Amino acid sequence: MADDGMLMNFSVGEDSLGVKAVFKGGRWRDRLQAKKSAQRRREKHQTNGALTGSNAVPTKTRETNIDDEGSRPTKRQRVNGAPNTHSRINHVNSKPHEVVSSLFTYNLPAKPSAIKEIRTEDAPAPVPSNAPLDASLSTFTSLGLSPFLSTHLIQNLNLTAPTAIQKATITQLLREDSDAFIQAETGSGKTLAYLLPIVQRIMALSSSPASSHSANLEASEKASKDEKKINRTSGLFALILAPTRELTHQISTVLTRLLRPMPWLVAGTVTGGAVKNHEKARLRKGLNILVATPGRLVDHLDNTEVLDVGTVRWLVLDEGDRLMELGFEEDIKGIVQKLEKRKDEKKGEWRLRKKVEGLPEKRTTVMCSATMKMGVQRLGEISLKDAVHIKADPGPSTELESVTGSKQEDKQTAFLAPAQLKQSYIVVPPKQRLVTLAALLKRTFARKGSAMKAIVFLSCADSVNFHFQAFSRKEAQAPKESPSSNPNTKSNKNRKISGTQDASTPEEMPKTSQKSEKPELPTVSPASSLTSPSNPGLTLYELHGSLAQPLRTATLQSFTRSSNPCILLCTDVASRGLDLPNIDLVIEYDPPFSADDHLHRVGRTARAGKEGRACCFLMPGPEEGYVEVLKECAGESVIKGEAAEDVLRKGFGKHFASAKSKMDASNAGSGKWDDEATAWQLELERWVIDDKRAGEMARKAYVSHVRAYATHVAKERGMFDVKGLHLGHLAKAFALRERPGNMGRGNIVRGGKSTRQDHGEKRRLVNGADDKAVGEKRPGKADLDLPPTDGQDAAKKMRMKMKEHIAGASEFNIG
Ligand SMILES: Nc1ncnc2c1ncn2[C@@H]1O[C@H](COP(=O)(O)OP(=O)(O)OP(=O)(O)O)[C@@H](O)[C@H]1O
């Protein structure tokens, strides 16, 4: 273990050598060795006459954890006033008799080598790769959409031309009934790509050719109404499945907008977390298109008689790879079997009744994602037969010979981020992670208008919660009034919105957040410790799977609608498919768990041809190897390395010096970026020490973070090896002065050789991303067809461990 057992920031008398140590943890041999060496140090010091006069202090007791084989030399403690040869700054704002280890000591576990390779040259601005095509060359009508629908798109939805993937998909799905696999980069308009042809074909069942060929919306709408044969009771024609509730609602919103001029066609949703009886009532009234999460749909298929799927002719699996990864394939298989069964039962019925004219005989299954590999055998099992592979580029769609049932290897398609996305990485020592994140956010939101919205991805729910509370706490806040730990979890009904009670109300802050403690209020708060005087309205949101569903929905809605600059702290629950407007920057503060996750996370910006920036935090050492993965995902685009010091300098430089430190006369040298950064960190550390619940929150976040770290996909675990983590330094990133006592070497759960499926299973177990009860286990691939391995044992242990934590705010609630 890389931890050197360094004694960090504990409060002692003037001479720490007078301390009587109690040694805990680790092997007895190590304890004995440590005891002896401490004894020797004491004796030597006494011989040298170091403990004299005022320096002599009564013996105190402290705890030293020696879980790790501490082969490193023990770091000498620094005492106030003592010269410090390792550090450029000392003890800023430190209380009397407090020992403070510097953030900027050069005693770092590894030097960030990648920083030396920074490529500063700016490449020529690349052409956006997911933008709509030139309207003079391609229009929706030219693809075969009716003038009625095309006019609606142009006039009401402000969409003048299709994107490349829309061009390819619409043509294909209007022309043929073959199954299809749509793969195009994030933000390229895949949702409309599959919705438009489906809506057009359902529309065609309703209206006369005359009305659908008219471009006059009003006249056409009236004519269609008069002649319509189809209404909400005519049957359910399309089913769209998505992995998260958020995505389901988003697809439904797009669909509702699309159907606005066709009020006789009705779409609806069924998702976990919603009231089942309300859904039943809607199903009873009749729907033509249903958007659902798989678990809840299975539930309705089993228990809601009025849900008749015999007429379903289109089945869409949005974010297909995620659905598979999260282990939904059993659910999907069950759904497909029911569709088949009901279709066969209905055949006779349809013959007796008047068949819906134009309804295809065959059901079409469509899968789509930015990062899905073809050739996976299991795709056949969920009814993707002789699928057509539709890609935005190059040109026409490519027939796949045999996807179904074949054992061909995944085609190693290189999935790329949008070309116009500006990507960078920062190599930050673990100690400085928190201040560097703060600096980056301060710099990004330095002035009003400099940026609108940013998303920060963290590895687990506990960490999101801690950072939300830490950044939104008011600096002047009395410790006792500090926010409680995780007040927003499902278990805590009396939720408080931290920092909003006494924080200055930012202009245009969602009013709901200041009223009461109703659970449907968004988790929003002023970003009090990130706000600069020239951008006072900065707000902070948190989103993760531990939040109750109404909170998740309210938070996302509020963040989406906010016209204030704001930051969303979240887990990967927000990484897939979400189309949030005006995202300028995506920060991967905790690196993604896989390259695919990276593409989806950064894909929340630079959408539909717009600009965007993304930045990934890495730690010095093996993690720097991840730059190569980032480069692979960037294709031709340049990835810039930024020096952490530059970020800190800009974030904590004179310009951003806090008003408090400027006024503090005792703070000599304030205004210097490193002093400011240290003061900022110390402030936070005091909060964690003084407020018991803040301390608990920090420790929980730390433990969850380390455990989550152990679940990177096996392929990338060499770069993210939990054994290499410097646990002592990492504690600083959670404002802790030392690592929590239970984080010894033996207590770190490692992922072993678990696969991506294991990883998905782990995440899903405690998800909130899907729609079954949290913690409910469903079989993933790991349980179905992989031989047991060490990795699986490790994964099993991990699952058990996670289950233990599920009762509270799950430590690991990523989804
Ligand atoms: N033809 C178009 N012209 C302009 N904007 C469009 C067009 N089609 C879609 N968009 C917009 O592009 C954005 C991204 O669309 P969408 O969410 O469907 O992308 P996606 O490919 O599904 O992305 P992801 O892979 O991240 O889910 C949306 O805001 C949508 O309104």
TrEMBL record:
Extent of Basic and acidic residues compositional bias: 60-72, 508-520, 755-784
Helicase C-terminal domain residues: 498-656
PROSITE patterns: HELICASE_ATP_BIND_1, HELICASE_CTER, Q_MOTIF
Subcellular location: Nucleus, Nucleolus
Compositional bias annotation for Low complexity: 479-491
Keyword Chaperone: no
Start-end of Polar residues biased regions: 47-58, 525-536
UniProt-listed GO biological process terms: rRNA processing
Catalytic activity: ATP + H2O = ADP + phosphate + H(+)
Main location: nucleus
Domain DEAD-box RNA helicase Q, first and last residues per copy: 138-167
Any GO CC annotation of this UniProt entry: nucleolus
Residue segments, region Disordered: 33-90, 474-536, 744-794
Chain ranges for the short sequence motif Q motif as given in the UniProt record: 138-167
Similarity annotation: Belongs to the DEAD box helicase family.
Protein name per UniProt: ATP-dependent RNA helicase
Organism: Alectoria fallacina
Species lineage: Eukaryota, Fungi, Dikarya, Ascomycota, Pezizomycotina
